[in-house]
Amino acid sequence: MFWLCPPAELPPLVLASASPRRRELLTRVGLQFTVDSADMDERPLAGEAPARQVERLAWAKARQVALRHRQGLILGADTVVVLDDLVLGKPRDAAEAVDMLQQLSGRWHEVYTGWAILTAGEGGERTGHVRTRVLFHELGREQILAYVAGGEPLDKAGAYGIQEGGALLVAALDGDYFSVMGLPLATVCRELVAAARDLRPTPAGPKWQPL
Fold it and tell me: Does residue 78 have an active-site annotation?
């Protein structure tokens, strides 16, 4: 189905994330994978740049899951929203979601998504991040309250989901739409293929077996 990331050429793939958006994106391009989500403290380190933060957390998630698997590729990812050097993660509650959206109203902000691909049992790893700029419409307080009341913002960085009702908040976008959803799909698929080539079967037989 998907010429860039043909499932038959990939070893077993494990998504180290419980995000339904990331599952949806991988499914859209016909990839077969299992989910084994990581559980860790996602708070930034003191003075940590957003690009460094998302790559570190993506790697840490993939690493935690890789330790539970003996073969295949492990994919981790992390996303944050940045406004004027302030990192906006997932809101703790509805009040914080309202505050985040009020700050974003009518302004450009940046979305950083980091990814990491680790090879279970082989030690190989690939990491990177994608930065996308997003402009919000001017939002009235009633609009924000109605959006938050629906519950959609509470599990999303920056308190919005561009693929759902949050699409109505966005006036313009400069960069990778899918990265704002939580996974730079084209970039990650290319890297999965490259990682799989590192594990390409030898004359003695494949380095991986079906799970």
Answer: yes
